Amino acid sequence: MAMLAPSVLSANFAHLEQDCRDALEGGAKLLHYDVMDGHFVPNISFGIPVLKSIHKAMPDAFFDVHLMITDPIDYVHAFADAGASLINFHVESNSDAQKTLDAIKAEGCKTGMTIKPATPAEEVFPYLDQLDLVLVMSVEPGFGGQKFMADMLDKVRALAAERERRGLNFLIEIDGGINEHTGAQATAAGVDILVAGSTAFAVPDVKAACQTLSNL
Is 71 among the residues known to form the active site? Predict the structure, then answer.
């Protein structure tokens, strides 16, 4: 059974704390926090002040912070200080991957690395022994509501095979187009964490939706 990480970007911002609490009460194990800079991806979301506010209201929640930004190394300290539990950045970003990982570890946060749909899974293989999590994007990053790209599951299988071959313990996360059907497919392929946006938050009953997704 995979863990659920509802994407805060799809929550109702007028009731953000309550939505997040309902998601956790519904079985979600962590909250996925998408940061977009309008440059690395063609959209702008939220940043440090919002994370700081949610963390203050919910200090025991685990915040999986996904930096879809051009120079993530420049913001590691600020997001760690705001309450990030795990900082996840793109291997395709401009920041040196090793230096960024070192910066994240120096802040005491868990480490994550993300690959876009066009990036082979092998791009992150050199770093797997330093990672707590690898995120496979199953849509093009930037906007919610896109159709799940089923061929991305081949990357999940490749990562799972490499993890087993090397005896590593990183978790595999997937993000994009996740619902009951695609979530079940992803879990069967070896995914440990499902990121769900609209299917978790853009519904009348957040808690019930998260209960359903958590039981896949």
Answer: no
Domain count across the chain = 1
Closest CA to 199 of 21, 26, 1: 26
Q: Which of 64, 132, 175, 192 is catalytic?
A: 175
Predicted confidence band of residue 142 (pLDDT cuts 50, 70, 90): confident
CATH number at residue 47: 3.20.20.70
Of 19, 22, 34, 64, which is the active-site residue? 34
**DSSP state, residue 37:** B
- What range defines the domain where residue 90 resides? 3-214
Beta-sheet pairing, 133-137 with 110-115:
parallel
State yes or no: is 102 an active-site residue.
Answer: no
Q: Which tens digits make up the pLDDT trace of 143-184?
A: 666 789 999 999 999 999 999 999 999 999 999 999 999 999
